[in-house]
Amino acid sequence: MTTRSAFLQATALVAALPGAVAPAPRKPRMLRRGDRVGLLAPASPPERDDISRATANVASLGLVPVLGKYVRERDGYLAGTDEQRAADFNEMARDPGIRALFAIRGGYGTMRILTMLDYGALERDPKVVMGFSDLTAILNAVTVRSRIVTFHGPVGAHGSAWDGAAREAVERALFSPEPPGVLSIADARTIVPGRARGRLAGGNLTLVAALTGTPYAVPIDGSLFFFEETEEAPYRIDRMLTQLELAGDLRAARGTLVGRCTKCLATGSSPTAEEVIAERLRAAGRPAAAGAPVGHIPRQWVLPIGALAELDASAGTLALLEPGVAP
Hints:
By secondary structure, this protein is α/β, with parallel strands linked by helices. The protein has ten helices and 14 strands. The protein has two domains: 162 residues, LD-carboxypeptidase A C-terminal domain-like (Glucose Oxidase, domain 1, 3-Layer(bba) Sandwich), CATH 3.50.30; 139 residues, Rossmann fold (3-Layer(aba) Sandwich), CATH 3.40.50.10740. Helices cover 31% and strands 22% of the residues.
């Protein structure tokens, strides 16, 4: 056995051990029918019918949608100025009558307002905060700075993400104080076999890489890291994962769950996105599995960032060991 092979086996075994994990963040109160939910546009401006679709989706859960003051504003490719988008977030975070903050859509812009958010308001009064894609920045920043669980899940206007199995995932994650239990990946691909336990952290790979080295970096060290991506060429995915590798993050994670990489198309004879991801994660030597229904897809899991989970990369399962909400 080569020295490198021995090292990879040893690091995989270490990652599989339960070990010590980060302290548990506080949990927001579970949602109840009739709760008021703030609908925000912290990134790109809502497109046609996005606001009405988000309002209808929230109302279909028996919740009362409350629109942010500036959700119809536009400032170039942003949903209003940085000050306006942050003001909507902070007003909802400070309002004791608002029990959740949902993004209407993603796009781009949340990184620009991270320094302007009132993390203390959410620490004093934990609320459900949910979204995905560009919301990766806010979700992880709130979990770290407000010390509360946040939720990687559908945005308000995310079409069929609010019916069928996807609706059940939202209700199980946000309306019940019981651990969601074991989730099985239908078409799992084991990259590195083994088991790993840690607190969930991650989201969209572009945002994770862009925040590396900043005070708002996604807390990958000691976590159960997950990521997804869309419309990025394999060489760009390679670049982002290489950045995380050079920063030491891929080895610092206890294990990695790969979601969907939609429209990440290779050209000519270049490696596929799946091949690039597998190469980088094998080099990291931590348990890793791919194919989870997480990302830019019609129906996705709802993952509680900051909650304890266990990945069985060999079996293709993710066990959510604690709920993301409190009674």
